[in-house]
Amino acid sequence: MVHAxxxxxxxxxxxxRQAFVESPSIASFPLxxxxxxxxxxxxxxxQEREKVLHYFNAxxxxxxxxxxxxxxxxxxxxxxxxTGNLKGYVTxxxxxxxxxxxxxxxxxxxxxxxxxxxxxxxASHSICMTVGAPSEIQxxxxxxxxxxxxxxNFADPYSIHxxxxxxxxxxxxxxxxxxxxxxRPVEKARACNPAIEPDFSKLHEDARHAIHCSETLDVxxxxxxxxxxxxxxxxxxxxxxxxxxxxxIEKTQGYMSFQLQMLKNxxxxxxxxxxxxxxxxxxxxxxxxxxxxxxxxxxxGQAAKEDSKVxxxxGQAAKxxxxxxxxxxxxxMAFLPATFTAAVFSMxxxxxxxxxxxxxxxxxxxxxxxxxxAVALPLTGITIATWFLWxxxxxxxxxxxxxxxxxxx
Length: 409
Hints:
9 strands; transmembrane helix; two-stranded antiparallel sheet; transmembrane; alpha+beta; 8 helices; seven-stranded mixed beta sheet; membrane
């Protein structure tokens, strides 16, 4: 047997009590009622689940782990007696809601509410069993029904769904705002200090929560839409003649349309949260790139400044070298004529005879002095010509190198 909390309509009042439930005992409950089973109290084995949910005619596949781990679904079945008349109507559906909460530890920063619902309706009673619904849904539903005990018309199989969906919608509202509360501090922090270093790991974790929120709302809207469609189909097939019943049916249809619209609105808000978070991630990444580029440019500028100082030093050294070379050139020019003259007159082509007594000293020059000029002048010409030829070859090689490099660009 499974421990459960039962919210039942007894003597015109909605009351809560604890009970142990299994399929046979559910039929004896005062009707209508809601049965809340905690997730940790629900059987893990398929055979045990069948014992609990047999009363609700749930398909065997719904009892498998595939459906119990699904992010949402909706199904129904009409039950007929041997004469082909409608004797009952069952539905089964599932919702998942993710609530994010502030926490230092990543694994405890959120909680999943995985809720399964099973309803059984007939003309005389209506029962809904929920598995895994949080206490706030139980409390909210109890408060609403206590204040509005006559709000449900159980001639409509979907009447029991309506107040329950109100509480589920409130839970989705909390989910959307819990994600929004992650985004807003990031936006404010950036506005106050654009240079703040972001926590990209946390931003991507927040983005994961936003994605899950949008996913569950997408599925929730589809489930609610299918539920609304099947409610309308049921009453088209089984038309009620009483005006009061038609009014109640139309009221349920209108309110379910409103609930569906609320889920769609939450889905749009969740998508906006995701886009806002993506904008923050993109903007922060762009700012970080710009800041790093700025630092790189500053480093390059500093290096260029240092290079400029080095070039100034090199220029000063070159200037000093140029001054030294000019000094050497001046000294060379000063001594070169005298050196040349000394070299010429020291050759054997010249002879100085010192004077003796009444005879003065005299210079004599060899008649072969022309040999010196015959050798020196051609040699000088050859040297100058060789230098010009060598310089021209150097210039041609340099031009060819520039042409080859230009052709490979």
